[in-house]
Amino acid sequence: MFSTKLVILGRDGILNEFREGHVTDPEEWRPIPGALEAVARLNHAGWHAAVATNQAGIGRGMIDMAAVNAVHARMNQLLLAQGGRIDAVFFCPHTPEDDCDCRKPKPGMMIDIGHRYGVDLAQVPMVCDTLRDLQAAQAAGCEPHLVLSGRAAAAGDEQVRQMLAQVPVARSHADLGAFVDFLLARDDTADSGPGSLS
After folding, report:
1. Cβ(187)–Cβ(45) under 8 Å?
2. Domain 6-187 adopts which CATH fold?
3. What is d(CA 132, CA 111) in angstroms, rounded to the nearest whole number?
4. How many of the other CB atoms lie within 10 Å of CB of 179?
5. Which end of the chain, N or C, is less surrounded by CB atoms within 10 Å?
6. Domain spans of the chain?
7. pTM for this one?
């Protein structure tokens, strides 16, 4: 039975450089070198990509929906120039104090994505750069992957080990490009398994 091949990506620290302040202007959205090309390689291999991102700046009044949409329009414009695309952006607009079901580490956004695509989240890799996002992936039943290109890059080796120890099924990768290398190599291995034509 055919199933949509889907990857869920965090945004800040995975696709674009992480900023301590919120990204409030399109010009502040700066891609991590190689990240957009990595998404394009995923797309060309038949994978869909959706973004799941906490955006508490909305709830705090630091950014409005028009600005959020402008930031994501820039993201999609830059992706298109590399031959890639993000199918959909899911975001939580709430602050931690709101105690909503969609703010990571809770799994609400991923569950919504699963419903939207009609996929079993156990078959969906989720790319993270924080413990909070790894925990969200685990809670949703996704396959958690940690990239060391964002906030995890600032953590020492011991802190990264501790993060991975708390979500022991997670794998780590240098960046989004290295994750895509892993995923596509695994696809190739599965496709060339016993009984398949090479």
Report:
1. yes
2. Rossmann fold (3.40.50)
3. 16
4. 24
5. N
6. 6-187
7. 0.93
